[in-house]
Hints:
Elements: E1 2-8, H1 12-22, E2 29-32, H2 41-44, H3 49-54, E3 62-63, E4 76-77, E5 93-94, H4 99-107, H5 115-125, E6 126-128, E7 142-144, H6 152-163, E8 179-182, E9 184-185, E10 187-188, E11 191-192, H7 195-200, E12 209-212, E13 216-223, E14 226-233, E15 239-250, H8 253-263, E16 266-267, H9 269-274, E17 281-282, E18 294-302, H10 314-327, E19 339-343, E20 354-359, E21 374-381, E22 389-391, E23 402-404, H11 411-427, E24 437-442, H12 450-460, E25 462-463, E26 495-497, H13 512-526
Parallel strand pairs: 1-2, 1-15, 2-12, 6-7, 15-26, 16-17
Antiparallel strand pairs: 3-4, 5-9, 8-19, 10-11, 13-14, 14-15, 18-21, 18-24, 18-25, 19-20, 20-21, 22-23
Amino acid sequence: MEFDYIIVGAGSAGCVLANRLSRDPGNRVLLLEAGPEDKALSIRMPAACLSNLKSTKHNWAFQGEAEPELDGRQLQHDRGKTLGGSSSINGMCFIRGHALDYEGWRQAGCEGWSYADVLPYFKRMESYSGGADAFRGTEGPLHVQRAEATETLAQAFLEAGSQAGYQRTDDISGYCQEGFGVFDRTVFKGQRWSAARAYLDPARGRKNLTIVTQALVHRLIMSGDRVTGVLYRDQQGALINVMARQEVLLSAGAVGSPHLLLLSGIGPKSHLESMGIAVTADLPGVGQNLQDHPDFVLQFRCLQPVSLWPKTKPWAMAAAGIRWLIAGDGLCASNHFDAVACIRSDAGVEYPDIQLTISPIAVDENWSPLKEHAFQIHVGLMRAHSRGSIELRSDNPADAPRILANYLQDPRDRELMRKGIHWVRELVEQPAFSALKGVEIFPGAACQSEATLDAKLTSHTSSQWHLSCTARMGPATDRLAVVDPQGTVHGVSGLRVVDASIMPFVTNGNTNAPTIMLAEKLSDAILGLSPLAPIDLQVWQSPNPKGAQR
């Protein structure tokens, strides 16, 4: 079999590429996905996102290595294994990141990736229910719903932010990211609007697009330093060679893409040789520079019956499910993340590095609701200093790679997380929470010293599932860069990487929106189209970042 383009991975980026590349009927496009179709009801229902994380049918559920700074705990890394990838099982939170994230990319040698360069692609990809303006688009395939934040706890969270001296922002993905505001979500007419719904479904009828699910790619096929195709195992267990006339595009994600590069002999020479794999390109950066957003949760008893706990009882859940099936609204039509805050951890920090998100229900470590009225606030560290890696476990493509995130390895990350905990505790002492906040269930009011907080961080820090940066973009002069600013792998022709793995630094917020944006942008590069004209707009920044934390 022969195609013009072979896309490996039908996740957020792969769905974008499949749509954009197949719009030209002259391009024959093959999209390979290791997981099944995305037909499960739990994928369509926004409130069912936790059930997707408990199952392995649509979730790789990678088991991480023992984390040295977390007492050897092994965290599960949830990644989508179906059409739409992680956009089919994630929390549906939509946030672009800060403009200075992309200025950082440009300064790292990624020309063409400044905020002015990426903004037109953010606008092109979305249809925002909040309406069009200079920053937002309303004609794209990805429906983005503006939350109403009418629930009591979300309103208290926003009001407490104002009372604590933080500013309110009308649009966390627009002119002003810093402050407290509503949290956009990828939901449309009460259903999850994954990348598969947005990009793949409209393209399925095209005769020049072939979609193959349950196809596990084993390795890239090389001819010298050129990639000419891929070898994959189909649903029946047969090994199939398929060739690419133009390019192979790796969109297998921050875990899958470096895994396939390594299996194909592209990566650090010493590691490949230790695995008995012939080296085709010595690229030391493959699998390195792993970044994530560490997460820590504070839980509080709720003094009023306004949490979601009673609605999680079997009879209530059944009633909500029936309502959703009939009318497409109600409890099941929301991800229940209505409000968010992007704040700076301290004076002297140029732009937000802490994300706070409130949930109107508290859950235990197994994702089961606490059997009482309670709520929780997540502290997410957006610019962690620690770096991890992804390495081969063996040369068997069916063996998951080793994932070591090195959470909190850099002592500065613990300090920043402690500050985040402090700011949450200050927030819930504001008047807006006075009639709502009861005792601190976790980590508990007695947990105040650095030592006791560090012990809780060690035992309970988790992941926000934003693994990224493992095949980072950068110039050829950067020895640890894996791809150039066009996504082309250094020293290898016929191969690009297009997914969250090529981010030089993780963005300030959930990573799904930036991943879709970069696939939109690189689809133009693949097709040889001129990039969209930059949109040079000013964004809000603190007038006194060195002198004040808010």
